[in-house]
Sequence to fold (171 residues):
Amino acid sequence: MSNNILKFAMNRNTSVEKINGGNLRSVCRLRDTFTDAEVVIEVKMPDMEICAISGYFRHAGWGEIEDLDRRLQAVMGVRVAAGMLKIIKGLMGEEEKIQQIVYMVEECCHGVILTLTRKVLLKAPDDEAGKVSFYSNMVKKSIRLYDRCAAFAKGTPLVAELEAEKAKGGA
Fold:
């Protein structure tokens, strides 16, 4: 085998669990050939405010982000709701070295939202065509779901109709 072949592997996952007092803990982890990172947020319920946050970020080329804790603490009190992405970027910054961690904070928030929409997701019909139509319409009604999880990622069957409408100049 040639030594000139590049090898890259990536795994990103987000999980959400109920913790003390009904609050939610959302964890986003990223492991790839160059990066080891994690963000953990706690969301106070029912206010949906970030009440605790921590994380780390190690990159083979960049090392650690020196002021990461300060940047993470800046989003304390942000409400997990419409407009949060712009607020998070504004508070944490948009420099290249911080983009991945900002995305991970956003992923944690989206995980909380998807957890709270679980009851809606369970209302999908049992037949395959009905499920695709149900979820497709759900994404159309709440466009913020688009490309925010594997099921609603670009190019998947659940968003194919939406992407076709966009290509035609609709939606």
User: Anything to note?
Assistant: The chain has a mean pLDDT of 87. The first helix runs from residue 68 to 73. The longest strand covers residues 49-59. Residues 121-167 form one domain.
